[in-house]
Design brief:
Elements (H helix, E strand, L loop, with lengths): L13 H26 L3 E6 L5 E6 L2 H10 L1 E3 L3 E4 L2 E6 L2 E4 L1
Antiparallel strand pairs: 1-2, 3-4, 4-5, 5-6
């Protein structure tokens, strides 16, 4: 049986929204965990729900990943550069450039 494709749009029903947030958050953290184990990479995930609840995952720890990220980062007026990657801050989002 195929999975049904759903459109990516805001979910208005509160119960459906909470279930989707929980399942997606758990799936994201599981994928981050798998990626960190398979690649031995430092990985950090921070999710803040609309209700203000914080959910984090970090390997080896979120503090270590954040410290490592900012210790190798130079911040310009609207561009963030880390090593060979560059991100531009546009409309409250970092976009890879």
């Amino acid at each position: 049986m195929k999975k049904k494709k759903i459109p990516i749009e805001k979910i208005e029903k509160k119960k459906s929204h909470n279930v989707t947030l929980s399942k997606t958050r758990n799936g994201l953290i599981k994928k981050a965990w798998e990626f960190s184990i398979l690649s031995s990479a430092s990985v950090g995930v921070l999710v803040i729900s609309v209700a203000g609840h914080h959910y984090t995952y970090g390997f080896p720890s979120l503090d270590f990943v954040v410290d490592q990220f900012f210790s190798r980062t130079t911040v310009g007026p609207s561009t963030l550069t880390t090593g060979s990657s560059s991100f531009v801050f546009v409309d409250d989002q970092f976009l890879a450039s």
